[in-house]
Predict the structure.
Amino acid sequence: MFPTSIVDLSHPLQSGMTCYPGDPGFRIHCSCNSSISDKPRMVVTVHELTCSTHTGTHVDAPFHFFLGGTKLNDIPLERFVGRAVVLDVRHAAHSRKKIGWADIDVECNSAGLRQIGPRSEGKTDIVLLWTGWDVHWDTPTYFAHPYFAREVAERLRDMGAGMVGLDMLSPDETPADASEGGEPCDGFGGHEVLLGAGRLICENLRGLGTLAGDSVSEVWVSIVPLSISDSDGSPVRAYGWRQSKQA
């Protein structure tokens, strides 16, 4: 059944947009704008894009942190599409504060937590962590986002999550001196645990709250990256929808 309402979960790519400190910025440049001699109303336009593989809303492949990790083009396409669980952690999302498992394992998330597990067991393996931090996109505050304790990644990994998405720059702390090579005080626990186990991470999502809600329908998402050979990640056009639960 085709969804009746699709929610855009991606930030638009545009010059000057937020990027991880030290990464190449996004740039769009017109490289061709030529009229057709016998068709005065027609103009051939081509643009050149410059960006990193982690620009905007994007997916991290295991190769992003591990030399022997799986590269993006070797990951089956079906892993990027499927049912998803939205976990509400807005109550614990404060500037540069750590979010622990106890902040996630609360009453409002109890039903969602029970759904998490391998697809082979009929469960849901895409987990979306809703912090609400996307409201700070393209502002200095976005870089001072909260971050998740290593235990959160370990718990989700052990439960069977195949992809963890979030509406922040990173699951790990972004230090104030990141552009100068500074590392998080707590390390890159989220990346290490999830990518090290062959799982995927999607960063810089937006609008996750629009998917949260009723218990009579289920959340589906498409977070498909570009097919880039030998890549560690890629921008995505993520979107989601709700549909009636299958009998």
Observations:
- The mean pLDDT is 94.
